[in-house]
Request: fold
Amino acid sequence: MGGHNNFVYGGCSAKTECALGKPGERQYGLAKYAYLDHGSSFYSHNEPANNPFSGDSSNIRICRFRRSTYENLKRYESRTENSYPLLKETEKMIDNGVYRVIYDSVFRKTQIRLNKVVSIVENCLAKFPDEEVFSIPDYDKVRIAEEDATLDDD
Reply:
């Protein structure tokens, strides 16, 4: 799973009162991961199948994010219709030869997906307090036993 391109959803924060949801709305089994990395952008113009962020953004119920993830995505959000800040920034960093393999349209679709995730976070912020939406600690602030087991350090 890589770890850095996904996050866990479900469960409660220390500041949230929790109660069992209706049976049809419960999440059973191991923690669920939502893949925020839409790497399929490089080979498909469609949203990733079976991704909690695919489809109508008003139906997306995930509302817990890392503040740093939101802030980094927000820096590249497009605020006008044909503006592609992510593409413009990418063009500064990569060799033009990459466009022989990956079309411009792929980067534009990635921009659209980025805008969608920013919009989802902002919809959450309109409904819930900041401390609930940004209740996931930054990636480097949490020790995850499964990841530690793969490291060579003591």
